[in-house]
Every structure is written in C-alpha cells, then in structure tokens.
Specification:
The structure holds two protein chains of two kinds. By secondary structure, chain A is of the alpha/beta class. Chain A has two domains: 3-30 and 296-402, Aspartate Aminotransferase, domain 1 (Alpha-Beta Complex); 38-292, 3-Layer(aba) Sandwich (Aspartate Aminotransferase, domain 2). Chain A has helices at 3-8, 35-48, 58-77, 92-107, 126-135, 152-158, 181-190, 210-213, 238-243, 278-294, 296-316, 342-351, 364-369, 386-402; strands at residues 23-24, 86-89, 113-117, 138-142, 163-169, 195-198, 217-221, 232-236, 254-257, 262-264, 320-322, 332-337, 354-355, 357-359, 375-379. In chain A, helix 2 (35-48) packs antiparallel against helix 10 (278-294), helix 3 crosses helix 10 and helix 12 (342-351) crosses helix 14 (386-402). The model of chain A has no long low-confidence stretch (mean pLDDT 96). Chain B has six helices and four strands, in the order H-H-E-E-E-H-H-H-H-E. Chain B has a single domain, classed as Alpha-Beta Complex (Sufe protein. Chain: A), CATH 3.90.1010. Chain B is 42% helix and 18% strand. In chain B, helix 2 crosses helix 3 (65-78), helix 3 (65-78) runs parallel beside helix 6 and helix 4 (83-98) runs antiparallel to helix 6 (129-143). In chain B, strands 3-2-1-4 form a four-stranded mixed sheet, with helices on one face. In chain B, a hairpin with a 4-residue loop joins strand 1 (29-35) and strand 2. The model of chain B has no long low-confidence stretch (mean pLDDT 91). The chains are: A alpha/beta, B alpha+beta.
Chain lengths: 406, 154
C-alpha cells in the first residue's frame, strides 16, 4: 500500500497551509475528504439534483435510487442483516439522541439506570442527562482502570436489576482504548439489557460487523469516515426500530394523516422525517467505497504501525506524558507536557503546520477523573506517515525551547 | 507572525509565575469565568474601598500561558486604581486585543502600557483571543456584581 499515492487523492494536501506542508493529526475530530467524495457532491448538485422519495419525475427517481444505494453500501460495510436497519441521521450525535429519546420515552422510568462509562464523549452522556432531568432516571459510570481502559469487569460491577440500557463507546477518543464490545453485549444480553455502541472512532478505523457484535444500536459519524459533514448513521436491530416510537415528526415519515390521527411510515422512513441531507448521503457512498478500495484491514494495519511508532517516539521524549496505556488501542495519542498548557502546545505546533487538538475533547468526565482540564491529542488517518510523527516530535521540541524547558 | 511575539519573555514569566495568585480574606467583590472550549477557569477577587478604589485584587485559576499572564498583568495594572479608571482600562484593553494596535487611556503610565501591549500578539491568533480576555471580562463582571459565571462563548 503506497500512502503517498493515497494521500494524493486528498486535495487538502495539494496546497500549503500558512506556508507549511500540512501535517494533519486531527482525524479523530474530523477526517479530510478524498476528491471522489467532494466531486460527488458537486456532480449531484450540478447534474442530478432532486429531492428524494416524493416526486415521480426522472431526476427524483434517480436521486432516490442513489440515496438508497448508500443505505445498501452501509448495510454491507457493517454487515447488518437488513437494509432497513440503517437509519440516516445528521451525525452520530443525532443517532444517540434518537435512541435516548425514543427508548427513554418507552422504557425508562423513575429510578431506572442507564450505564455509561467514564470514557464517553459528551454526546453519549448529555442525551441521557436530559432523561435524568425529565424522568428522574439515574446514570451510572463504569470506571476506567489505571491504563485508561474499560474492562468487562468494570461494566459487570455497575449492572444492577435497575439497569435498562448500556451505552458505551467502542474506541475512546482520548485514551484510544478499544472496549471488549462483544463480551459486554453477551453479558448484557444474558440480563436482557440492550446495548448502544458509540462507533464514531471505530467505524473509520476497524472492521465492524453488526451481526458478529450483536449490539442493539450502533452510532456512526460520516465526517470521521472521510465523508461529508451533516451525515451519520444509526444502526438498530429491526425489532427496535419497529418497536420504538418515531423520533421527529414531519414529511416522509408518515403512513396516513387524518384530523383524527396519524399512522407512521414503514422502515426506514419512520425515522427519516423531512428532507434529509441528500447530497451528503449520496457522497457518503463514495467515502465508504474509498475505504473499501484501500481496504479496512490495510487501514487498520497502517494506523497500528503509525500508533506504535508514535508511542515509541513520544515515549523517548522525556517531557511528554502519554495519557493511558490500553492493551487494545486505536490511533489516538493524548498527552501533556509538564509546564506547557495544551493550548499553547497546539498554537506552537500550528505554526509548523502540525494540526492537533487541544482541550477536553468533549470528555470532561474523563479529564476530571484524570485531574486534568485539558490534554493535547494527535490522532491518525490513512494519509498520515511516520514522517508526520517525526515532524510532530520536532515541533514539540520547539515548544520546549520557547518555554525554556529542557 | 512570529511566535516569539506571542510568547514574549514577559508572557512566559507571568504565565509561569503569576503575580497575585490566590484568594484573600476580606474581598468584597468577586466573579468566576469559564472557557468551555478548553475547560479553563478563573476566579477574580477584589476589594473596593469606600473611595471606590481597588485596595487589593487577586485571582485563582488554571490555564494556558496567555490566560495566566493576562490575569496576572491585569491585577498589577488595576491595583490602586479607581473603579471608573478600571472600567476604562478594561474597555481600552479589550479594544486593543481585538481591533487596535495601541492603548489610548491616560491612566496607565508608559511603562505599564508597554507591559500590557505584550499581549497584543494574541490578535494574530483568533482562537486564542478568548484566553487573553477571559480574566478581564471576569473582572468586569465582578465590578457589576454579576452572579453569573462569565463564559467566553457567547
């Protein structure tokens, strides 16, 4: 696999950013876009545009087919049993809100417990917090160990007879820990508890298989998968989509509308109210095709190599303190440098064209636990090379120089 | 823009060894500030005496070099000034950080202005302006007796 050739497919790397070659180490936040994705949006709007699922004219039918093609591509990519188990949303955030809202409405009552973990992104905590406020439910947090991992044991400890749903990340966007999802799902199902998995960080980087994982819900973000913003996926087992109430009301999601009452549409329309992000859905097909072309196994292997090289390089740098040491780890390295605030690190790195993220990465619960307000984070994508990591390290040396650290 | 202009010796010094850090007992005004972007916090304490003069001012907080230095220098600038003067300095500082390249108030001495101007490099880094302004907005809020936590995102 030739990374330089793959990198050429991403127009963002053609030009300099502030007179520097771009070293993009912020893919856990959002990934860059290959040309085929960008072109697809342009082509759709200039040659093929129409709304989907409503009119009978040629363009409408063609657009509807394109839109549904993406659903089939996603179904195959994540090995879902049924095409109608794929619901398009505006992002993973909306996917989790959809479940919290509809499942919460039907199945959660005062005193019931939702089990999440200390690793969760705010998008997998705040939607449950709304239910805590509205319905007086409890939120329990499975605790991380010293390596920044969530083990099966830590989940087990927090399950009670009141636990009504478990909602957990597949791959931490801070420590990089990969959770033992299959084992957790097995355990939960043995107690009749459904499991929602936040797959934002895993879907772009790991092979994921819904029938193998057997989880009930899985949330995916499009823009982290080299796709457009404004598009995400909720995978849900068909039994849940049939059982749960609709999320938003509007056009497209109805069966029949009368003054006396309303019936709802069949799947997947029931959960796709209003005009959807049509162009983004259609272009998202290209991002998955891009991943398939490179091969998810190749991506996994490449990013693992990068991460090992990154860990090795940063560990040699005595000033750098790496957050977490999980055995199963995705391409995310969060770190601090004693004496330099992460935002100062990020500003100085930016001057060298090295784009990282600094802050709490929408994980304040985890940062509180670690007694930190913020960390710096380098995260990898298919276009990164070992050279990028060398540049990161060189730039970190420059930080130390500016701050007069040894 | 040169990073050396942003991270001048004086900023690094105040960032590392902030002056007037901590809380004092008989303050009569205070306010909290929070930057949701990075999670940084600042808490400003001051005592206005019967002549509406700032007798003492300190702050507590943690943050980046820019935010700590800005808070530290701020406490030095406004200590001993009258409330009305403090408000003018705040307005002048915020304008300098966001738009102009100079300070126009007649309250601070030239060497004080030079010290304060060391923060002007932040203007070139739009994402970092909030780091420099948080403590100043918080001071403003303390003078207004506002109970609300100042947020940089508004």
């Amino acid at each position: 696999m030739n990374i330089e050739n793959i990198k050429k497919e991403f127009p963002i790397f053609d030009d300099k950013v502030q007179n520097n070659d771009l070293v993009y180490l912020d893919s856990a936040n959002s990934a860059q876009k290959p040309k085929m994705v960008v072109d697809r949006i342009y082509d759709f709007y200039t040659k093929e545009f129409s709304n989907v699922g409503r009119s009978v004219h040629y363009l409408a039918v063609a657009a509807t087919n394109l839109y549904e093609n993406t659903r089939t591509t996603v179904q195959k990519y994540i090995n879902a049993k049924d095409k109608n188990e794929i619901v398009f949303t505006k992002g993973a955030t909306e996917a989790i809100n959809l479940v919290a809202n509809t499942y919460g409405q039907k199945y959660l009552n005062e005193g019931d417990e939702v089990l999440i973990t200390e690793l969760e992104h705010h998008s997998n905590y705040v939607p449950w917090h709304f239910l805590r406020k509205a319905k007086n439910i409890k939120i329990k947090f499975a605790e991380i160990n010293n390596e920044g991992e969530i083990t099966l044991e830590s989940i087990k400890e927090k399950i009670t007879s009141k636990t009504k749903i478990i909602s957990i990340t597949h791959l931490s966007n801070v420590t990089g820990a990969i959770l033992p999802i299959k084992e957790i799902v097995n355990l939960a199902h043995s107690k009749n508890i459904p499991v929602l998995v936040d797959g934002c960080q895993s879907a772009p980087h790991l092979k994921i298989d819904m029938q193998d994982l057997d989880c009930d819900f899985y949330a995916i973000s499009g823009h982290k998968m080299y796709g457009p913003t404004g598009i995400g996926v909720l995978y849900a087992k068909k039994k849940w989509l049939e059982d749960l109430p609709p999320y938003q009301g509007g056009g497209g999601m109805i069966g029949e509308v009368k003054k006396e009452g309303i019936s709802y549409g069949d799947l997947p329309n029931k959960y796709e109210a209003g005009t959807m992000a049509t162009a983004q859905v259609i272009a998202f097909n290209e991002s998955i095709k891009f991943i398939q072309k490179v091969g998810i196994e190749n991506i996994e292997k490449h990013e693992k190599e990068l991460m090992n090289y990154g860990l090795e390089t940063l560990r040699k740098n005595n000033s750098v303190n790496i957050i977490g040491n999980p055995k199963e780890r995705g391409g995310v390295i969060s770190f601090t440098i004693e004496g330099i605030h992460p935002h100062d690190i990020a500003t100085i790195l930016d001057e060298d064209g090295v784009a990282i993220r600094a802050g709490h990465h929408c994980c304040q619960i985890l940062h509180d636990k670690l007694k930190l307000t913020s960390t710096a984070r380098a995260s990898f994508g298919i276009y990164n090379t070992k050279d990028d990591i060398d540049k990161l390290n060189k730039s970190l040396e420059n930080c130390k120089k500016i701050f007069n650290l040894k | 823009m040169n990073l050396k202009e942003l991270y001048q010796e004086i900023i690094l010094d105040h960032g590392k060894n902030p002056r007037n850090l901590g809380k004092f007992d008989n303050y009569n005004k205070d306010a909290k500030g929070h930057n949701p972007l990075c999670g940084d916090d600042v808490h400003v304490y001051l005592r206005l005496n019967e002549n509406k003069k700032v007798d003492d001012i300190t702050f507590e907080g943690k943050g980046c070099a820019i935010s700590m230095a800005s808070a530290s220098i701020m406490t030095e600038m406004v200590r001993g000034k009258e409330e009305i003067e403090v408000k003018e300095i705040i307005t002048d500082f915020l304008k300098m950080i966001k738009e102009k390249d100079e300070l126009n108030n007649n309250i601070l001495k030239e060497d004080e202005k030079t010290k304060l101007m060391s923060l002007s490099g932040v203007k070139q880094y739009p994402m970092r302006v909030k780091c420099a302004t948080l403590s100043w907005h918080t001071l403003s809020s303390a003078l207004e007796n506002s109970q609300e936590v100042v947020k940089t995102e508004k």
